[in-house]
Amino acid sequence: MLKLYTARNSICTQKVFITLYEKGLEWEEVIIDLFNNEQYKPEYLRINPKGVVPSLVHNGDFINESTLICEYLDEVVPEPSLRPASAANRARMRIWGKFVDEGIFEATREISFSAMFREKMRNMSAEQREGRFRNVGNPEKRARFISTYEQGVESPYVFYGIAHYEKMFAAMEKDLSDGRDWLVGGSFSLADIALMPFVARMDYLDLLDVWTEGRSSVTAWWARAKARPSFAHAVSSRLKPEEEKAMRTFGGALKERIRERRQEYLGTIS
Fold first, then answer.
1. Same domain (yes/no): 6, 69
2. What is the mean pLDDT of each run of 10 residues along the chain (270 residues)?
3. For residue 243, what is the domain's CATH number?
4. Which residues touch 121 (CB under 8 Å, ≥6 apart)?
């Protein structure tokens, strides 16, 4: 039996959910309450020393990091395959995973924080906020949180995040413009799965068209991706209506300023 440790609305876990549904697998789900610091309990740290989600337990082995979990699942359950047949295309698939792991993950966290979680933290007492920052653990991550809390969309980290999304969507449009349906090798793969939850978050925040306006190939790819049953099972059906409404409201409030900051970034590369 597969046992998956996750948290509510964890974007990285959504990648794993999509993979599990595409594979037709069953699993036991264990929810970790991040706001109550359950990820730092000794019993969970034995599974995942970083104290993050998701984590997969299978046959007594602990598999961490969502990208690696998805590849592991495709390896131990080969059919239907979610990896391209050729070594070259598998390498191209992993490039898209690197887009996420080396920029888009943090970009999404910072943009989401500036749009929504910043407001929640404003309603905390100073002591509660300090406790939240103190519990982050990683000094770099703490610095990002503090900057985004204090400056919101004006934080340099949000600016970097906007730039990361611009680079990703530009690369997607370039590759998809040859008429292919999916990012690598013409077939739906872990490359598409890697991006779907992150594109979805920008969509739910009413920010997606900041980057996709005028990019018809990306827009068509997104329509195909979110129409897959695995997306509905893994992402949209797990969101409560009030959560969707809150994301759209808070994200929409920042939309014009994020659009302006994207233009600032484009001005640096023109």
1. yes
2. 91 96 96 85 91 94 96 96 96 95 94 79 66 67 79 93 97 97 95 98 97 98 98 94 92 95 92
3. 1.20.1050.10
4. 129, 132, 149
Question: What tokens does 254 get?
Answer: 């920042």
Across the beta sheet with 61-64, the strand order is 27-31, 2-6, 55-58, 61-64
Q: Please tell me whether residue 56 adopts helix, strand or coil conformation.
A: strand
Contacts of 125 by beta carbon, 8 Å cutoff, 6+ apart: none
Give the tokens for residue 58: 């299978």
> Are residues 233 and 160 part of one domain?
yes
Q: How far is CA 48 from the centre of its chain?
A: 19
User: Which residues 6+ apart lie within 8 Å of 196 measured at CB?
Assistant: 14, 15, 18, 225, 226, 231, 235
For 119-129, what is each residue's pLDDT tens digit?
676 666 666 66
CA distance 55 to 65: 7
On the CB side of 237, CA atoms within 13 Å amount to 11
